């Protein structure tokens, strides 16, 4: 059930009849969603509802898994990113992703992790790399903690710092959309608060899609909320409305903790 | 139960200690500077050394390593990164078959394709035979160490818009490189100790070689075989001495793996 007055917002990213399969199993079925520009959209739902699969379809990472298939369209600024003319590598530079478990590159320093996406794509200009490293680390609220240790290994940081390093690494490529797949599920409450704080800042410049199984988190940080159940979109609308006046009985049950 | 295990360990270690002790006791008297730096002499002359076979072994293992690294590492990357691919599955299985292949048969094969066609035993033919021993070992260890690299790192790299080939080289191989190096060093150790692939390819020689392609080339292992089966006491002693030198080289290679690379390896295996 999609709430009204949603069409008013310009959609940065949109899915049309998006279906994803793993082998012959349908993991998500005909999802139609709009992600408004410079807003945070949360996707929530119980484990196995397909929310991670959905977000992994948005930057064409899902198809890297053997036997995984995607049908339907994902429209970025009016263009279907699954069209045969589109290079998925170029799309991934415009749609960045932060994963569930912090995954800095273990062979690289903090600095090299932050600019990995630039360096490995051939950016050599030292000045530009330094600028982007500092700017992205600042935006991820990590700069002050690491500015004197940039040469140290990224894996020496705490879990929360590693995750913010992964956010910085994503920002350095200067994407337009940032996907976050349960970015706080491996972190403690203090580390989670810092990430949420940075998300609130980031939405000024980026369109953010975040998957979470934590309802309080969705309520705290998102402008829009999608609720998924068994691979289908159950409800979608402004976060306040979805939480205060859910239209679907399932959403209401989930929010009130009757299942999940 | 634990007593049985201890007995098993002792039984396993006895032959090793016995061989090592025997080689040291019989080999040490043969070793001298002359032994390591001079060419062989006839059995009735005193002195003489094994310098040409040390050079021969190093030359052939060196060339074999240069051949085997790109092919073995390339194959290993293919096994690991295209593991769903049919060709990859089949060739990975063939790789295992090749690992257990009788090395004499490899020698015979190279004899036919390189010695019979060129009409010469040569260091190059020996090196090619040794590389056939090394390639499957490097292929398998590369495959296994790359499979230890977490999938999430590959995804993280791809998600940054880094192309797949660069992801493989700069993220996956770079993360698993200690395992790769370990495999290469172990393959070098294995090739250094091989005898039968060289019998029909490099054969034997008593001088330093000046041409890689048309001169029979002596190696330490073949010298041990020749001298050890000869009726002359002086040659038999030199065979023990050569065996000791060979064992020390193997020991050094294994120590490099264990303490040089092994330590870093555990760090790379985080997930």
Tags for this model:
heterodimer; A: 260 residues; alpha/beta; Rossmann fold; 4-stranded antiparallel sheet; 11 helices; B: 271 residues; mainly alpha; MetI-like fold
Task: Kindly describe this structure.
- The complex is a heterodimer of chains A (260) and B (271).
- Chain A has eleven helices and ten strands.
- With 260 residues, chain A is an alpha/beta fold.
- In chain A, α5 crosses α7 and α7 runs parallel beside α8.
- The model of chain A has no long low-confidence stretch (mean pLDDT 93).
- Chain B has a single domain, classed as Orthogonal Bundle (MetI-like fold).
- In chain B, 75% of the residues lie in helices and 0% in strands.
- Chain B has twelve helices and no strands.
- In chain B, α5 crosses α6 and α9 packs antiparallel against α12.
- The longest helix of chain B has 36 residues.
- Chains A and B meet through α2 and α7 of A and α7 and α8 of B.
User: Can you tell me the CATH class of one domain in chain A?
Assistant: Alpha Beta
Helix content of chain A: 25-40%
Quaternary state reads heterodimer
Task: Note the gap between the termini of chain B.
Answer: 36 Å
Order of helices and strands of chain B: HHHHHHHHHHHH
* Shape, principal axes of CA atoms of chain B: globular
Unreliably modeled segments of chain A:
none
Proportion of helical residues of chain B: over 70%
CATH homologous superfamily classification of one domain in chain A: P-loop containing nucleotide triphosphate hydrolases
Instruction: Identify the most extensive interface between protein chains.
Output: A-B, 28 and 24 residues
How many distinct folded domains of chain B? 1
- Report on the biggest sheet of chain B: none
Number of strands of chain A: 10
By DSSP, the count of extended strands of chain B is 0
Under CATH at level 1, the class of chain B stands as Mainly Alpha
Mind telling me which CATH architecture of chain B this is?
Orthogonal Bundle
The backbone outline of chain A, from C-alpha atoms, is: globular
Succession of helices and strands of chain A:
EEEHEEHEHHHHHEHEHEEHH
């Amino acid at each position: 059930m999609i709430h009204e007055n949603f069409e008013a917002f310009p959609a940065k990213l949109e899915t049309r009849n998006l279906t994803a399969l793993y082998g012959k199993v349908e993991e998500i079925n005909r999802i139609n969603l709009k992600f408004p520009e410079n807003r945070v959209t949360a996707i929530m739902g119980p484990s196995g509802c397909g929310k991670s699969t959905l977000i992994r379809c948005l930057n064409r990472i899902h198809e890297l898994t053997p036997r995984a298939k995607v049908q339907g369209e994902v429209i970025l600024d009016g263009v279907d990113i699954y069209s045969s003319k589109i290079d998925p590598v170029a799309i991934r530079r415009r749609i960045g992703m932060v994963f569930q478990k912090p995954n800095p590159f273990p062979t690289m320093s903090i600095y090299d992790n932050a600019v990995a996406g630039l360096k490995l794509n051939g950016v050599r200009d030292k000045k530009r790399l330094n600028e982007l490293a500092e700017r992205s680390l600042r935006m991820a609220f990590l700069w002050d903690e690491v500015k004197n240790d940039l040469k140290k290994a990224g894996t020496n940081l705490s879990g929360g710092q590693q995750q913010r390093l992964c956010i910085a690494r994503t920002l350095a490529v200067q994407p337009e959309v940032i996907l976050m797949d349960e970015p706080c599920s491996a972190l403690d409450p203090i580390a989670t608060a810092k990430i949420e704080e940075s998300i609130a800042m980031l939405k000024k410049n980026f369109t953010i899609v975040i998957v979470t199984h934590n309802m309080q988190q969705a309520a705290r940080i998102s402008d829009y909320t999608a609720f998924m159940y068994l691979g289908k979109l159950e409800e979608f609308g402004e976060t306040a409305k979805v939480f205060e006046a859910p239209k679907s009985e399932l959403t209401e049950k989930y929010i009130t903790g009757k299942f999940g | 139960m634990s007593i049985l295990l201890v007995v098993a360990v002792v039984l396993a270690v006895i032959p090793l200690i016995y061989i090592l002790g025997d080689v040291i006791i019989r080999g040490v008297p043969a070793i001298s500077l002359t032994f390591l730096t001079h060419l062989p002499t006839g059995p009735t002359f005193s002195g003489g050394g094994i310098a040409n076979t040390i050079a021969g072994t190093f030359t052939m293992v060196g060339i074999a390593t240069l051949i085997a690294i790109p092919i073995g590492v390339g194959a290993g990357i293919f096994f690991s990164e295209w593991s769903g691919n049919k060709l990859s599955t089949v060739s990975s299985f063939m790789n295992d078959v090749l690992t257990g292949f009788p090395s004499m048969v490899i020698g015979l094969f190279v004899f036919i394709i390189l010695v019979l066609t060129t009409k010469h035993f040569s260091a190059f033919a020996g090196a090619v035979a040794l590389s056939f021993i090394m390639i499957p070992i490097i292929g398998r260890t590369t495959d296994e160490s790359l499979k230890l690299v977490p999938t999430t790192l590959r995804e993280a790299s791809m998600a940054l818009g880094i192309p797949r080939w660069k992801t493989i080289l700069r993220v996956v191989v770079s993360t698993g490189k200690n395992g790769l190096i370990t495999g290469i060093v172990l393959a070098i150790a294995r090739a250094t100790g091989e005898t039968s692939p060289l019998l029909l390819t490099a054969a034997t020689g008593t001088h330093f070689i000046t041409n890689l392609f048309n001169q029979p080339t002596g190696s330490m292992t073949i010298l041990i075989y020749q001298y050890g089966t000869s009726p002359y006491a002086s040659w038999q002693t030199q065979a023990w001495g050569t065996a000791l030198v060979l064992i020390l080289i193997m020991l050094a290679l294994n120590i490099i793996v264990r303490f040089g690379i092994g330590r870093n390896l555990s760090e790379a295996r985080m997930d």
